[in-house]
Design goal:
Mean pLDDT of chain A: 91
Shape of chain B: globular
Mean pLDDT of chain B: 78
Order of helices and strands of chain A: EEEEEEEEEH
Strand order of the largest sheet of chain A: 1-9-6-3-4
Radius of gyration of chain A: 18 Å
Number of helices of chain A: 1
Structural class of chain B: alpha+beta
Largest sheet of chain A: 5 strands, mixed
Largest sheet of chain B: 12 strands, antiparallel, barrel
Oligomer: heterodimer
Helix content of chain B: 10-25%
Number of helices of chain B: 8
Strand content of chain A: over 45%
Strand content of chain B: 35-45%
Largest interface: A-B, 49 and 61 residues
Distance between the termini of chain A: 35 Å
Distance between the termini of chain B: 41 Å
Amino acid sequence: MPKSNYCLIDPDGGSLKVRVTANNGIRTGSVFILWELKNGTWEKKERFNVITGDDGIDEFILLEKPDDIENDSLAWAIHACSSINHVERGEFSITIIQDGNDRWKKESSRLVPKCSDGKQLQFGSHVIFKHLISENLSTSDLWKDTE
Amino acid sequence: MERHRITSAIFIFLLIFIGYSQDIEQPGDNQNAYSFKLDYNVPESPAFAVLDANPTTIMRASTPQEIVTHLASNFLSGNEVSPGLALDFNPYFTFGGRLKSVKEYRNSYGKRFLANLQLSFATINSMDFPDDMLFSGGIRATLFDSKDLIFDTQLGKDIDNALLPDSTDEPGPMNDNDQGTVVDNQALEQAYIDAKTRYMNKPGGSLALGYAIAGRAKDNSFKTDSIVTYRHQAWLVGQYDLGRSGMSINAMVMYRYDQTPLTTDNDGLISGIALRKYGQKLILSAEIYHDSMKESIDFGGYAEAYLIPSITLFASLKKETNSITGDEDVVFKPGIKWNFSQAKK
């Protein structure tokens, strides 16, 4: 579980990949939207449809460069149901990956209604991107920044 | 006795008439929650089978559906059918088993085998042993099912499309619905109505293996020295659905070993075939089988109707030979199957 809704990324690193998983044969359809705060109002920058399908996994890459994404919000709404008999619970995960490293991950175990009952579980949240402070900065450089 | 037979006849007539009158509706006509469930082909309870409490002798081979509670009842017949209860469930998921994905279910025979195991426990009061309680446990494994719904890729696509949020469901920048809510989705219902139509029109076969053991608690006491094993049985059943006609052929061979001191021929084979006609809300079937222990050929008819949400009403009329007296009689067995997993929501 993440400690907060903040995802620390390297502004000079590669593109951000978002991976969604659901196990136990649970099917999900979801939408992810990248929002940017401009002049006090949120504007939609990118939108992605995500379907975990038969594999239980799907991923997409944010088009926005990591350097330009600070303080942007990635929000999602996930709809899920169980397609396999006897399955009532499943584990979900959302992972933000940069250069092969997990920058942020949220996992949850949830009770899920059966698709055959004509019901779905809806849940969602958001994460705010923040730039990592460079590890190569010396203490004196950090003091300069604060001054 | 004559009064019971008249009551039985009226019950069967009403069951068939109401079921048939509703059966002429096309798929999708009725949008009630139970109408699109694919629970009309629920296999019989293995634990009830060993106690002869199932309404039919020849069982089905199809994939089990969810958690089902079976009730046997003599509320109408007054003959040798006794009240009882059976609960069927899947041990793999109940005890924490997991699947990686639908693809793993399709590709891994082992996982599919575990996901379709059916464990069953039952208890019944028997007229053969009026002072005792009979109880049983059984297990049933689906070896093969070419009509398994999880292999319906069109259903998978339809579900995925139904789940995809539209523009009205777009999350805001500070979206916080982590708790989650369960809501109705009409498109999911339609996906299953379409799947049911495809299922009924598709030819295909299935094969299942079962084993069950029954015990007897003398004087209804569950002390160690009061419990004796009553019966063992193992069976193999095959089913082939012909497709568009809605007809299905089932064939079964069962080995039964009785440990009751009242019978002379303690073991033997029960083998036979059944012909079933599947409607949208009514299933009619006829069966004929040979019992080598009684040296008899028996037959019966069966009707199963889906008229009330979560509940299946069934009734059978069959010629049976009493294992103790050897007398032949026509036995009426009404009962109820309760789809527990749907009803509890």
